[in-house]
Design goal:
With 268 residues, the protein is an alpha/beta fold. It has two domains: 1-82 and 174-268, P-loop containing nucleotide triphosphate hydrolases (Rossmann fold), CATH 3.40.50; 92-172, no CATH class. Helix content is 34%, strand content 22%. Strand 9 and strand 10 (233-238) form a beta hairpin. Helix 3 (98-104) packs parallel to helix 5. The longest helix has 18 residues, at 125-142. The chain is globular, with a radius of gyration of 19 Å. The two termini are 36 Å apart.
């Protein structure tokens, strides 16, 4: 494992007007880890992922990926560097097929352009597209969604749409994949399947995972390390066992008021 963390967040703060979403957050994620971010609703978890992926630009602090500062890079530039993500609220193209939705995840890898397009049948463009389609079919097989590959995404159940969104994120071939509540709204069987896919992505595909998840059983089972946020502040970071034994964490999840976190305001 490299001495340089794959992801390093240094003293990041984010505010919307007078509302502080994140206050002086620092942490790192090592290559090959499953790193989970937990906390009550409104703790700033999704805001943190949005800062990492480039949807938000922090007011203070910086973010490094593979040793390169990416704090002010746009989301597509970060995707090209190897950061992929899913969303808490599904962001699929509902009118497109499952296959086409996943192919969108390969778009930044295509070398075909306005000039080579007309020569499709006589240029490497055809071979390139076939190679990308083979890669997508492998992802479809991995996530066991062959039976819906031609289905319109908007007609699928919530659990299957979450799986398709994961497939599109995988299609980016990211080194770091950000998962925002990948199991929200799923039944027990769907959660078990998703946990297995995440573990296989990490173990077999070598993808580093940073995940927001409310299901503490899943977090405890598959995470290497866990960070807890509450009211936009970092409460604790460490192994799942150490984190769950922390007094402040227990108070946050039991809904008790923690005097160390009073007066921080609501988090967007």
């Amino acid at each position: 494992m490299s001495d340089v963390p794959l992801l390093k967040v240094e003293a990041v703060s984010l505010a919307f007007g007078g509302v502080k979403a994140l206050t002086d957050i620092s942490f790192s994620v090592n290559s090959g880890e499953v790193f989970s971010i937990i906390g009550p609703n409104g703790a700033g978890k999704t805001s943190m992922l949005n800062c990492i992926s480039g949807r938000y630009s922090p007011n203070q602090g910086r973010i490094l990926f593979s040793g390169q500062e990416v704090t002010h890079l746009k989301p597509n530039a970060r995707a090209e560097l190897g950061i992929g993500r899913t969303f808490q609220n599904l962001a699929l193209f509902g009118h497109m097929s499952v296959l086409d939705n996943i192919m969108v995840g390969r778009h930044h890898m295509l070398n075909n352009n306005f000039f080579t397009g007309p020569l499709y049948w006589f240029s490497p463009a055809k071979r390139e597209e076939l190679a990308h389609r083979r890669a997508v079919e492998e992802i479809i097989d991995f996530l066991e969604i062959s039976h819906i590959r031609k289905a319109i995404a908007g007609t699928l159940s919530y659990g299957l749409r979450k799986r398709v969104e994961l497939a599109r994120a995988i299609a980016l071939k990211p080194d770091l994949i950000l998962l925002d509540e990948p199991m929200a709204g799923m039944n027990l069987e769907e959660k078990e399947d998703m946990a297995r896919y995440i573990m296989d992505l990490n173990a077999e595909f070598g993808m580093t995972v940073t995940m927001i998840e409310h299901d503490m059983g899943v977090v405890m089972d598959i995470s290497d390390r866990v960070m807890v946020l509450d009211f936009g502040k970092k409460v604790v970071e460490g192994s799942p066992e150490a984190v769950m034994a922390n007094e402040h964490v227990q108070k946050a999840y039991l809904g008790e008021e923690d005097p160390e976190l009073e007066g921080t305001g609501e988090v967007a």
